[in-house]
Automatic annotation (TrEMBL):
Protein name listed in UniProt: Cytochrome P450
Pfam families with a match to the protein in the record: p450 (PF00067)
Family: Belongs to the cytochrome P450 family.
One GO molecular-function entry: iron ion binding
Length: 512
C-alpha cells in the first residue's frame, strides 16, 4: 500500500501536475507556439531537441514563422534583436536562469555560471585586470610560442609548391590541431603550465590518482564526452538529477559521466601544481596569480574550491570557444577564395619577415577583424539563447509584459541572421562590417560573447589568438578542402563543435 501511495505521488508530481499547470496557464504562456508538441507541458521535451545535431538551426527555421516560441513550459525564445537589450543589456532586471546551477553541479560557481549578481561582480573585478588587452599583450609571447609550435607541426605535414596536390595521407584535421593549440595556450596563460600537446600531437594529460599513480586522460575528448551527456538532460530541470542517476545504469552514459570526473581530476591536479609553486615562493605572472593576490600583491584568501572552479572554466571556455572560432574562420575563408586572397594581401603586407605575426602589426588590420567577426556572426561558438529569468515581479520585453520567473533568451544564431540588419544572412561577407552605415545597429545585434554586464570576460583573448594565428597561417600556407563541395558538419552540445576540418596544406615560399 505504501508503495502504491508513493507511485501515485510521483505520478501526480511529475506527470499530472505539468498537464494541469499547462491548461490552468496562470502565466498566459499558451498564447505562444510550442517548439514541439510537448514543449508547453514538460521540460522532458528538451531531450527531443537535443537529439538533433544542430538544434539551434532547427529553432531558427521555426523562428522564421514565429517571433516568440515556447521552448519549455516556463521558457520563451525571442527572434527580434530588440529583445537583446531588454534581456541581456545593462540595467536589465533579468538574471541568469537556474539552469546554470545545474551546469555547475555541486561545486563552487565560476564566473560564467554564477547567478548572484554581487558574487558575479566580485569575480569580474578580480579577473578584469587579467583579461584586459594591455595585460594580455604582456602574455603575447606565450601565444606566439604556441603558434610557433603549431607551425612546426604543419611544416612537417605541408607540401612544397602549389602545382601538385599531396596524397590522401597528407590530409590534416585542423579542428583537432586548433584545439591542441588553444588548450596549450590557455594552460600557459592561466597557470604557467606547459602541457606539451602541440609537441606530442596528443591531448593526453597524466595526473596522479588517489594512490599516487599516474593515469593518462585525454583532456579534449573527455571534456567533449562530459559535455555531450550533460547537455542531453540539462534542459529537463526538475528531472535532471533523476535522469542523471538513471543514465548511469547504461555503460555508454556511465563512461561519459566518468569523463566529467576525469576532467575534474585534471583540473584539480593542475591547480595543485600551480598552488604548490606559489607556496614555494615562485613569482608567476598568470591568470591564477590575479585570483591569488590583487594588483597590490595582497593575498585574496579565496578558498581552494573557488580557485579550482575558476581554473576549470578558464581551461574549458578559454580553449573550446577559440578552437571552434578558428575552425569556422579558416573554413569560411577556404570556401570563399576571394576573401582568402584579400585577407592574405592585407596580412602579408603587414608581417613580411615575421615567422609569427606580432600582435602589434595585426591588431588594427580592418579586413582581418571583419573576417573574424563575420565568421562569429555565421557560426557563433555558443549559438543557442543563453537563458535568463525575469524577476518575480515580471519584466517588459519589447514593451510586452512577461510574468515573473519565466526563462527568456535570444539565440545568437537567430539574431545574427536578421535580414534587415544582415542582408544575405547565410553569405560570408566580411565587407558588411566595413564602412557600413548600419554598423552600429549590427553591433547591437552581434552577440557571440553575449551582451551587457554578463558578457564574456574573455573576448579579448580569443580575438588576440585568432588575429595572431590566422595572420600567420594565411601568410605561410595554402589550404584546400577534400573537394569543392565539401561542407563542414557541426554538432551542438553546449557549444557548436565542428566535427572535423580535413585540409591539405601547401607551404608557400615566403620571407621569414
Amino acid at each position: 500500500m505504501e508503495l502504491l501511495k508513493l507511485f501515485i505521488a510521483i505520478f501526480v508530481l511529475y506527470a499530472l501536475k505539468p498537464v494541469l499547470v499547462y491548461f490552468y496557464d496562470h502565466k498566459k504562456l499558451r498564447q505562444y507556439p510550442n517548439q514541439n508538441v510537448l514543449s508547453g507541458i514538460t521540460n522532458l521535451a528538451s531531450m527531443r531537441e537535443r537529439a538533433r545535431k544542430f538544434r539551434t538551426r532547427e529553432l531558427y527555421i521555426q523562428h522564421q514563422k514565429h517571433p516568440v516560441i515556447r521552448v519549455a513550459p516556463n521558457m520563451l525564445s525571442f527572434r527580434d534583436v530588440r529583445a537583446i537589450k531588454d534581456i541581456y543589456g545593462f540595467g536589465s532586471p533579468c538574471q541568469k536562469h537556474e539552469m546554470y546551477q545545474l551546469q555547475n553541479g555541486e561545486g563552487h560557481m565560476n564566473i560564467l555560471n554564477v547567478i548572484d549578481r554581487e558574487d558575479h561582480s566580485r569575480k569580474r573585478r578580480m579577473l578584469s585586470h587579467a583579461f584586459s588587452t594591455k595585460n594580455l599583450e604582456a602574455w603575447e609571447y606565450k601565444i606566439a610560442d604556441k603558434v610557433e609550435k603549431l607551425v612546426a607541426q604543419l611544416d612537417r605535414r605541408a607540401m612544397p609548391g602549389t602545382s601538385v596536390g599531396p596524397p590522401d595521407d597528407n590530409v590534416v584535421d585542423l579542428r583537432y590541431w586548433f584545439n591542441l593549440f588553444t588548450v596549450d595556450a590557455i594552460a600557459d596563460i592561466a597557470l604557467n603550465e606547459l602541457l606539451g600537446m602541440l609537441d606530442s600531437g596528443s591531448d593526453t594529460v597524466k595526473v596522479s590518482d588517489s594512490h599516487g599513480e599516474d593515469r593518462a586522460h585525454r583532456f579534449i575528448m573527455e571534456m567533449h564526452e562530459a559535455a555531450r551527456v550533460k547537455s542531453k538532460i540539462i534542459g529537463t530541470l526538475d528531472w535532471y538529477h533523476i535522469l542523471k542517476e538513471v543514465s548511469r545504469v547504461f555503460s555508454c552514459y556511465r563512461s561519459q559521466w566518468n569523463c566529467g570526473r576525469n576532467v575534474g581530476r585534471i583540473v584539480s591536479c593542475l591547480a595543485d601544481k600551480r598552488l604548490h609553486r606559489y607556496g614555494k615562493g615562485e613569482k608567476l605572472d598568470d591568470f591564477l596569480s590575479c585570483l591569488i593576490s590583487d594588483k597590490q600583491g595582497n593575498f585574496r584568501g579565496l578558498n581552494r574550491g573557488e580557485l579550482e572552479a575558476e581554473t576549470s572554466i578558464l581551461l574549458d571556455a578559454g580553449s573550446e570557444t577559440t578552437a571552434i572560432a578558428l575552425t569556422h574562420l579558416l573554413y569560411y575563408l577556404i570556401k570563399n577564395p576571394a576573401c582568402f586572397l584579400k585577407l592574405r594581401e592585407e596580412v602579408s603586407g603587414a608581417i613580411t619577415g615575421d615567422k609569427v605575426a606580432p600582435y602589434s602589426k595585426v591588431k588594427n588590420l580592418p579586413y582581418l577583424k571583419a573576417c573574424i567577426e563575420e565568421s562569429l556572426r555565421l557560426s557563433p561558438p555558443l549559438p543557442r539563447g543563453l537563458e535568463r529569468a525575469t524577476p518575480p515581479s515580471g519584466a517588459h520585453i519589447m514593451g510586452e509584459f512577461i510574468p515573473g520567473n519565466v526563462g527568456v533568451s535570444v539565440p545568437a544564431y537567430v539574431a545574427h541572421r536578421d535580414p534587415n540588419l544582415f542582408p544575405e544572412p547565410e553569405a560570408f561577407l566580411p565587407e558588411r562590417w566595413l564602412n557600413n552605415e548600419n554598423t552600429g545597429k549590427m553591433r547591437d545585434a552581434f552577440i557571440p560573447f553575449s551582451a551587457g554586464g554578463r558578457a564574456c570576460v574573455g573576448r579579448n583573448i580569443t580575438m588576440i589568438e585568432q588575429q595572431i594565428l590566422m595572420a600567420t597561417l594565411l601568410h605561410r600556407y595554402d589550404f584546400s578542402l577534400p573537394s569543392p563541395d565539401w561542407t563542414l558538419q557541426n554538432e551542438e552540445a553546449f557549444n557548436l563543435w565542428p566535427v572535423e576540418l580535413p585540409v591539405r596544406i601547401w607551404k608557400r615560399e615566403v620571407e621569414v
